[in-house]
Amino acid sequence: MNPAQLLTIFISAVFIYNVILSRFLGLCSFIAISKETKPALAMSLSVMFVTTMASIITWAIYRFLLIPFGLTYLRTISFILVIATFVQLVEMVIRKISPPMYRFFGIYLPLITVNCAVLGVAVLNSDMFFVKGKAVPGSFIYSLFQGICVGLGYTLAMLLMSGIRERLDLCDVPQAVKEFPLAFIIASIMSLSFMGFNGFRF
Amino acid sequence: MKKYFAEFTKGIIKENPTFVLALGLCPTLAVSVSLINGIGMGIAATFVLLGSNIIISLIKNFIPDRIRIPCFIVVIATFVTIAEMTMKAYSPVLDRALGIYVPLIVVNCIVLGRAEAFAQKSSVLNSLLDGLGMGVGFTLALLLISGIREFLGAGKLLGHGIFKGFEPVFVLGMPSGALLVIGLLLGFFNLLKNRKT
User: Fold this and answer.
1) How many structural domains are present in chain A?
2) Does some domain include residue A177?
3) What is the distance in angstroms between the Cα of A66 and the nearest Cα belonging to chain B?
4) Is the pLDDT of residue A61 over 60?
5) How large is the ipTM?
6) Domain boundaries, chain B
């Protein structure tokens, strides 16, 4: 394991290959829930939690179950099942422990099951940190860290977008581009500015 | 006969998954860099839609209501795995170009959305036609977006140069170009709709 590698993962996951603006994962929720800042923040935190946990769980499954038994072709089906079960479990636990928190996060959790960002991180981790069917040294830390960073990138894009869209409510925009089309055009400009991070070299 | 035909064609224009329902945008934007990627993604997604719609409408009476989503996901993931393995075996180049977006068909909202909204309460034949129509609509939308992006962004179509001395708009080949194209297309279709009413 190499600390410099962690910095590279952080920069590339949050800025250069931002999960929404460059990889287009979790775009549906990004467009649908970014109208106001508060729900956007709740959704982002839920996504960050789930991407982190999903990274841990899927790493363990890939490393100790799929690779030793030569079942890597079952990656997609096993990852999505585990993620769906895990999200369901979290929802049940939160509902039992803290009703106010359930009201804050609850409605977003079922959506996260089909959020591409979560499965995307799991698949990316297994692509990046396992070379020729073997885990690279420190792959667990890298996977965990990449899970956190992708969540951070999602939060960043979500907060920026919801801030812009809140202000946009006061503007007079053409009828045809109201709501979704305008959201995409704004996202495009944001993505353009994020391209500036491409110049980073380590 | 006419009724069946309507079931098939509704996915193409009236309920086009990309432009009207705004579902499954992640793969649409990510792979639409070139026309050939768009075709590959469209075919893979159509295959998954067709298969999952048929199977889910066949087993709809055996699925308990409370755990229907996990059941649907297992069916969908099975078809995605088949598509993934087939693509790896017969077209490794395309598989590499589409990358992680092939396994991500599992979480494509179109597939789960059709299972939930249509296949679980319709007959097998209707579901088949619905899946096929939605798949064709999705493929056409992908062709439109990837065609525009490849033509303007790289000055090519299917990898062949079209004009000599045409300076391509490079930004259309980048992620931000994808968002721009789909935003403008959505706005354009809204404009057409508003004109009509």
Assistant:
1) 1
2) no
3) 15
4) yes
5) 0.82
6) 2-196
